[in-house]
From TrEMBL:
It is a multi-pass membrane protein. This is C-type cytochrome biogenesis protein CcsB. It comes from the Bacteria. The chain crosses the membrane at residues 34-58, 64-84, 91-109, 129-150, 162-179, 191-214, 226-244, 264-288, 309-334, 346-363, 370-393. It is found in: Membrane. The keyword Repeat does not apply. One of its GO terms (biological process) is cytochrome complex assembly. GO terms for molecular function: heme binding. Pfam families: Cytochrom_C_asm. Residues 1-10 have a biased composition (Polar residues). GO terms for cellular component: plasma membrane. It comes from Pararobbsia silviterrae. Keywords: Cytochrome c-type biogenesis, Membrane, Transmembrane, Transmembrane helix.
């Protein structure tokens, strides 16, 4: 009896595995690990960050304590991973460093050169750079709306580029302001996140960056018209506050703020505030689309819902961290972790509000208009915790009054 062999067997190769139905199982493609997928350019960027941190440690070591050095060292892997995962931010970091160092070199140790040097006076001093940031954000808002209402891709594209430019100028303004504070006096120098003027600049920058990330991730510029509205509102307050209170002037830190805790507590807090504000403006877009307003120009409900959820989740995580850090700071400054100060109480209300939103989302599948209205209401609660407490209430945080 003659036995017929398969061609694979005749060739000396084992037959491929097959399912019971006879279909061939193909090998799964091997996925590279995250680090294995990094290119030479990625590692060069990380090396550049490390070199920059080394330069800062060498050049400004006299103005740093142990905690400052630790934060600077930890920032290298943090920003490296950020640059690896979000490529456009790498050029932003390089330009911020280049323009900031250029501006600092123009001062030549003399704060008075802010009025005599052309580039400092009109472009790179802290006040000039922050004014450029403010103007660019407002103009970007206009172009985003033009792009949406006229269905013009170029309008949204210009708005996006202007927003990137605004973020660049804003961060340069903060970096230079940091240096300017030390030119006033070694006892005055501090990180520029200590008063309402400075944290409003930080809010504009953080909210803009989060929006730009979502814009790229979801490949839509339609939400810029809404998110930039709340940022422009913050710019409006910033301008009023500067004129009415001369708030742009650098002031020494009050004793309660003379702590390294401020350098990590405040940024974490405003990542939360920025994310919550972004989610609220996305909820406005959701509610308008639901009522047929600009419905064909906005992303689908699934995209709007996803951005809303991710913004609140990220904001909640950082706000939780900020609250814990604030309690540790309070224990050091005032001798107790919690004192039911009005600012602390309203921070707890904000935390509970978004904790409940996330709980309903994850446990009960909260979506749709109820989730959108809740996120929009959350902005009102957050705004009162941020500004209303300073305007109408007093307490241990009275250094932040308007």
């Amino acid at each position: 009896m003659e036995v017929t062999h398969s061609s694979s067997a005749q060739a000396g190769r084992p037959a491929p595995d097959a399912t019971p139905s006879g279909s061939v199982l193909r090998p799964r493609p091997v996925r590279k690990s995250f680090f294995a997928s990094l290119t030479l350019l990625d590692w060069a960027f990380a090396l550049l960050l490390a070199a920059g941190a080394g330069f800062a440690l060498h050049r400004y070591n006299a103005h740093m304590n142990y905690y400052d050095e630790l934060v600077l060292v930890c920032s290298v892997p943090t920003f490296a991973v950020l640059g690896w995962r979000w490529k456009p931010v790498r050029l932003l970091m390089v330009l911020i460093a280049a323009l900031s160092i250029g501006a600092i070199s123009l001062y030549q140790g003399d704060l008075g050169r802010a009025e005599t040097s052309f580039f400092l006076k009109y472009l790179l001093s802290s006040q000039s750079a922050i004014l450029w940031m403010s103007a660019l954000l407002v103009i970007a808002t206009v172009f985003y709306w033009i792009g949406m209402l006229t269905r013009s891709p170029s309008g949204g594209s210009i708005g996006s580029r202007l927003t990137w430019a605004a973020v660049l100028m804003g961060f340069v303004g903060l970096m230079v302001r940091w240096y300017e504070s030390y030119l006033i006096g070694a006892d005055v120098g501090h990180i520029p996140i200590s008063n309402l003027y400075e944290v409003f600049v930080l809010f504009c920058l953080i909210t803009s960056l989060f929006y730009l990330y979502y814009e790229q991730h979801y490949q839509t510029r339609a939400l810029g018209a809404f998110v930039l509205l709340v940022i422009s509102a913050a710019v409006g307050f910033l301008m009023w506050y500067s004129v009415a209170r001369d708030a742009q002037q650098i002031q020494p830190l009050v004793p309660a703020l003379q702590s390294w805790w401020m350098k990590i507590h405040v940024p974490a807090n405003f990542i939360g505030y920025g994310s919550f504000a972004l989610s609220a403006m996305v909820s406005v877009a959701y509610l308008l689309k639901e009522r047929g307003v600009l419905a064909d120009r906005l992303p689908g409900f699934d995209v709007l819902d996803d951005v809303m959820y991710k913004s609140i989740a990220v904001g909640f995580a950082f706000f939780t961290i900020a609250t814990i850090l604030g309690a540790a700071w309070a224990a050091q400054a005032w001798g107790g972790y919690w004192s039911w100060d009005p600012k602390e109480t309203w921070a707890l209300i904000v935390w509970l509000n978004y904790a409940a939103w996330l709980h309903m989302r994850l446990m009960k599948g909260l979506r749709g208009s109820v989730a959108a209205w809740w996120a929009l209401t959350g902005l009102l609660v957050t705004t009162f915790a941020f500004l209303g407490v300073n305007m109408f209430l007093s307490g241990l945080h009275s250094y932040g009054k308007l």
